Each structure stands twice: as structure tokens, then as C-alpha cells.
Amino acid sequence: MDLYKALGVSKDASQEEIRRSYRRLARKYHPDANPGDKKAEDRFKEIQHAYEVLSNPEKRREYDEGPRTFFGTQGAGQPGGAGFEDISDLLGGFGNLGDIFGRATNTTQRTQTKGENLTVNVRLSFNDALNGVTTRIGVPVEEACGECRGTGAAPGTAPRTCPECGGRGMQSRDQGFFALSTPCLRCGGEGRIIEKPCKVCGGNGRVRRSRQVKVRIPAGARDGMKVRIPGRGGAGRRGGPAGDLYVVTRVEEHPVFRRRGDDFVVEVPVSFAEAALGAQIEVPRPGGGTVRVKLPAGTQDGKQFKVRGAGAPKAKKNSGEKGDLIVRVGVVVPKKLKRREREILEALAEARDEDVREDLFKKVGS
Ligand SMILES: [Zn+2]
Ligand SMILES: [Zn+2]
Questions:
Q1: For residue 205, which ligand has an atom nearest its CA?
Q2: How far is the CA of 206 from the centre of ligand 2 (A)?
Q3: How far is the CA of 144 from the centre of ligand 2 (A)?
Q4: What is the pLDDT of residues 201-239, one digit of tens each?
Q5: What is the CB neighbour count within 10 angstroms for residue 70?
Q6: Strand (E) positions, 88-242?
Q7: How many whole angstroms from 172 Cα to the centroid of ligand 1?
Q8: Which residues contact 124 (CB under 8 A, 6 or more apart)?
Q9: pTM beyond 0.85
């Protein structure tokens, strides 16, 4: 079942549109208006459930992001496939409706609510991530409407308490052997009525806009690192605290240096002569400059050397400590030989009377 379809609204519908559509449909299919009509009753439950999820920003986001995790794998409400029968399973039967809505209404609509947590990616160059940087990022947020100060009522007017439910947001109806408690139809469970909606936010009390937030990225930031900025997420509702902002760093790959924890790994080509005779070589350093590495005579292909403190600052500890630079040497075999080189190598082969595969065959066994 698609909850947006169930309420007859589009995926980007505002809270106000959702509430309006809910109220219209709930009136039409309410059991009081359709006594003994099982289809209307099922439809009513479907509408109730869709409203319960979509009117709650937190649940709505979970639903938008991944219906499967939202419903769980055991749930009957697999998106798309479920029909009316499944809805009552999902809600745990008709008798529990009041319980479910009662709880949802009490905790998410009637009381102060913390604003939503937001996650935003920030792209960083290799050097900015290495050295740290202060940058500004655009954060899409829902904020309290400035025109009506978040009340949703046009300036000069105020929302008034719903006369139908007395501000409770819930209505109880005697359905014979059990009492059915549902969100108030008059106010959509809000407990208050806005007679002249604010023109800027349409009565929602909230507006979407992009807010510039200054973010300090610590030196040594890694790709995928999450920086939490408390209180810079979505605005709270009814005076609740703002949510948090999570900034996820996306660091561009360097053509030469590969990050491994707080270390960098660099592949460095060395000649056969350097590896065999030993040498002092210059190696590029992350962030600029070079470091010297001493290769001992007889250095093997793939051998790693550690240059202490030439890695990334340990961003998490903020202690000034740094990781290491791991230098991995690769012995380069000449693709073409000049005549003199060929002669020298042939002389070497002759002088070095050695079978390099002797060990291999020994290990295989006879
Ligand atoms: Zn009401
Ligand atoms: Zn407004």
C-alpha cells in the first residue's frame, strides 16, 4: 500500500495538505457515516494509518527512505502489495486503533517535539581534508515560519482551541462493545483550529529554505567521517529543541596517496639497481614536500617502509599526533635495453650462477 495514494496526496505534499486531505477522507469513510459498511471501515482504517505515519515528520521520513525497514520484515504491510485485509493485521486489529493513535498523538503531536536531525554531505579536496578547513554549506531545513512565528495563523490572529475535542485532539465514540478513540475530525488531531491561515506557510507554521551553516572540518578528516553539530538541524515544534546537523565528509581521492586509518600509503617505483645495491630515495609527502627513505641493499619488491609522523593528523583525538606514511616500493623492470645494458645483464646472469626456482621445486616435493 502506498500511504500517499491512500490519502490522495502527492509525495511532496505539505503537512497542511496531508491534514486537509485526511480530514476530508476521514469524514467520508467514518464508520458513523457508513454503518455496517465493511469496505468503508477498511478504507477508514487505511486512511487513519496513512495519516498516522505521514503527519509525523520523523515517521514520514522513515517511510520515504525505506518502507521495508519501517514495516520490518515480518510486517504485513509490504509496500505495494498489501490490500485492505493486511491493514488490520498491521494495526493489530480494530480494537487497538485507539491505543495506537492515542499513543502517537500524545507523543508526537500534542507535546514539544525535537526538530528533525539532518544529514548533509560536504565535498572536500584532498588538501582541505588534510589541513582542515572552515567552509559554508547549504542545509535544507524546515524552519518556524517568520511571518506567523510558527503558529500557522495569519498575523494578528491566533489559533483557537478546537471546540469539538476541547483541545485533546482525540474523540471517543461508543461503537457498541468497545470504545473507539480516533484523532478529532474537526482539527485533525492538532487540538487547535486555525481560522485564517498564514499566507506564507499556508497554516503549516513551517517553511522550507536553505540555510548557510559554517562548518569547521578538523585537520585529517577522512572520507565518510560524520561531524555532529548540535542544534543546527530542523526547528523543533511547539517550542521543542532543534534537531542536530550531521555533516558527512566526502574527500576526493588523491592520484598517489591512499588513506589507511591515519596513515597514507604511497607506491614508489625503484630501479633494480637501487633495490639491489641500496639507495637513498626522495619520496613525495602528503601536503607537499618530500621525505628521504633509505633502502637497504637487497630490498625486495613490495617491501614497505614507515616514515613516522608523515601521515594525517589524528582528527578524532585532536592531539597534534599524526599517522605515518607507508612507502611501498615496486621494482621496475626495464622494458627495453640498450646494447650495453644487455651486455652487462648477460654478464650478471653468468656471474650469478643461481637457480632462483630451486626453493619452489623443493617445496612442491619430488
Ligand atoms: Zn479537535
Ligand atoms: Zn506562517
A1: 2
A2: 6
A3: 8
A4: 888 888 888 888 888 888 899 999 888 888 888 777 766
A5: 18
A6: 118-124, 133-144, 160-161, 170-174, 179-183, 192-193, 206-217, 226-229
A7: 11
A8: 133, 135, 217, 221, 249, 250, 251, 252
A9: no
